[in-house]
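Need the bound structure for BJW, inputs here:
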Amino acid sequence: MEQVRNIVILTGAGISAESGLRTFRAEDGLWEDHRVEDVATPQAFRRDPELVQRFYDERRANILAAQPNPAHAALARLDREWPGELLIVTQNIDDLHERAGAARVLHMHGEGLSAWCTACDARHRWEGTLSDNPPCPSCGEAALRPDIVWFGEIPYRMDEIFAALARADLFVSIGTSGAVYPAAGFVQEAKRTGARTLELNLERSQGSAWFDETRLGPASGLVPAWVE
Ligand code: BJW
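Answer from helper R.:
Posting the output first, comments after.
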């Protein structure tokens, strides 16, 4: 990676697929006959909070049961060893990057193991269920929701992400379909500010044409091979 100093890596559900966590837009991307797009919205939460809480209770249990795979491990190694700037921007709500040992991780769509109190704004690490309406440990109100960015909500830490993209010499997208904005637009932004762009994915994504190079295959093979 000659002449590369600053790297931004965007990851999506595909990097955790081989850890047993389902992707969103695959054939089997349904949950109890609901499209994910129909449960991951503030409207769905207002309409049927119990349904949405059960969806995330199940996701939380799956996250806790999953283990990082060789793709997470390779990125953690890169993070430890890379002397320049590096930022792993993940759309995933699992903690597999961190459990593999990566430190420079930003969860733009929130975290499955975090609960956010809509009464007092506190955030708490949460491994149990929320569908039984537990009280917030800070204020006692039963007003906890998953700390997740749903459709129509603003993703976290966008200023930091765009600043890192502006400084990046290399932008790498791993295991994401390019169907959801603003993440789907990061490749164009990185190109505009002069970065080389690389896509590692099982199949061509919606934004494939924007990448200087696309390598197709499972992340557990492609990512360690790229990091080597
Ligand atoms: C493998 C593999 C293996 C498989 N190895 N690869 C019209 C036009 C443009 C935008 C909009 C529009 N209408 C509405 C919008 C905005 C909307 C949006 O983008 N909608 C689209 C559907 C069009 N976006 C929003 O609402 C966002 N907010 C927003 O825009 O605010 C405005 C704003 C932005 C910025 C500044 C100021 C204001 C919020 C989006 C929130 C997304 N939330 C979700 C759910 C919550 C998290 C959760 O429950 O987990 O996030 S939706 C879901 O999609 C989840 C994911 O993070 C996200 C992306 O999915 P991802 O990761 O790409 O997964 P898949 O399944 O789609 O793809 C997996 C890929 O992996 C595939 O390509 C496979 O081939 C591959 N793969 N196995 C390698 N082994």
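Comments: The chain has a mean pLDDT of 95. The longest helix spans residues 49-65.
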